[in-house]
């Protein structure tokens, strides 16, 4: 990969840094990636500025219940007269928080486990793969559901539950990539020179599997946002009166005959955010490895 | 082939033992006391003790586990903590509805996804390809429960073509299918997105192979090459992957059944969680995992039958 990139003699940066700079430029030049990045940036901005652009999302006003969209209440009001625009804006917070942090949990647990399984083989591999196989016999949503049932709902629980549910994908990805890299000549050479496992993992394996991991992480953020919304929709995620796109859709369904927009608008925000991460993930994957389309599509099924 | 089969069965056996065991002990880690949860704060010490004796909760953990395994081996999932009904009967009553939903979704996924995937690959870089890829990306991103809400709103509330409430009593086949249509569509279209994408990429890969070039060089028509030579090989991969997506579909069924208020395994599980019916939650999770496991095994076996390369590996 970057080792083979030749740097111009006068270049101030190292070959690795130049290569990543080129990739970054390509990413911005790619229309899909740029679209994804812009939407994600907007959502992050809106979530961060929520206290300044929205009213108190939990403030009730029963006289104003179920008002259609107006200049005063852009997205109308719900059955308690709460401003749905404000609730939708604040709903971006749990989505992003759970999306980003839960994937950190999955990567932090899954990647080291997968690399160890791939590099060491033997019992470590058998044990780790067995656990992953068991976890994969549950759909991620069901795994997260199990944790939430056990510990109760709340943002930290959601982050850990959804993060754990995505661990198997990262274990598998890191393991299979490590298995390939382990056999390469330069790893054998490093071993000959007395390179230990940790050195090989961090110096040789990790830099080479960072690309696929970033792609999978971006796509997993999309999945995690969807799962947070799903759990909240089922009443097991973010608890009312705190808003989340999932529980806003749930509330909207109960009043779908009188006020269909209550479910439609938060759902649209949810879908667009998930879409943005999917577009970004797809573009990054195409940039990193345009030929590996089939296998990545397969991996995504889990 | 025999070795492959044995290895698969062995790993299946391992998971079949491990999953219920893990679910059992995980459910025992629940911080709340099930007796207190079911009977409420006002319950007397005697009634709590009676409840624990009746449900076996007063036994040591390992004895409870032994009883659980022995019951499970006899096909007995125990009784619901809330209603006292046998759980197996409750699951048997709703399982056909979840099964028909999953099969319907798979069918829609295949009928929409495979042709669209082939078409986008054959017409690569045309507007057909672009449209198909946008469909796939949208399907990927649409949460199935939100899609369900949209379908419900448009086709049931606004157009009135389908029922809004999905009770399952006294149905003729036509009525049943009528009630299945929207839920299956909301899960199936998401599935179709996965299938489109996978079919497209697999087809593109196959079209790059030497034997396809040979077929064209022999003077065969495009249609013959695409549908006779290429598609057959694509289908092996796609059918396998679709089997593996069953887990995702069953996970989605939990949401779809909630949106459409449709009886099923997912609805039963969510109800059990809401009521803290630990026995029912435990059995629901085990049944979910076992169904997915069996489907995966069938997929694995059919894969080895379809693809001679696996048979001899």
Structural summary, described in words:
The complex is a heterodimer of chains A (302) and B (313). Chain A has helices spanning 15-29, 31-48, 50-53, 84-120, 122-136, 140-151, 155-182, 185-192, 197-233, 245-254, 261-288, 293-299. Chain A is mostly helical and 302 residues long. Chain A has a single domain (46-66, 82-291), classed as MetI-like (MetI-like fold, Orthogonal Bundle), CATH 1.10.3720. In chain A, helix 6 packs across helix 7, helix 7 (155-182) runs antiparallel to helix 9 (197-233) and helix 9 packs parallel to helix 10 (245-254). Chain A is elongated, with a radius of gyration of 22 Å. In chain B, 79% of the residues lie in helices and 0% in strands. The longest helix of chain B is centred in the last third of the chain and has 38 residues, at 222-259. The termini of chain B are close together. The mean pLDDT of chain B is 86. At the A-B interface, helix 5, helix 6, helix 9, helix 10 and helix 11 of A face helix 1, helix 6, helix 7, helix 8 and helix 10 of B.
Characteristics:
heterodimer, A: 302 residues, mainly alpha, MetI-like fold, elongated, disordered N terminus, disordered C terminus, B: 313 residues, 13 helices, 0% strand, globular
Furnish the topology, listing elements before pairings.
The complex is a heterodimer of chains A (302) and B (313).
Chain A: H1 15-29, H2 31-48, H3 50-53, H4 84-120, H5 122-136, H6 140-151, H7 155-182, H8 185-192, H9 197-233, H10 245-254, H11 261-288, H12 293-299
Helix pairs in contact in A: 2-4, 2-11, 4-5, 4-7, 4-9, 4-11, 5-7, 6-7, 7-9, 9-10, 9-11, 10-11
Chain B: H1 2-28, H2 34-39, H3 45-55, H4 61-73, H5 87-122, H6 127-141, H7 144-158, H8 173-207, H9 210-217, H10 222-259, H11 265-275, H12 278-306, H13 308-311
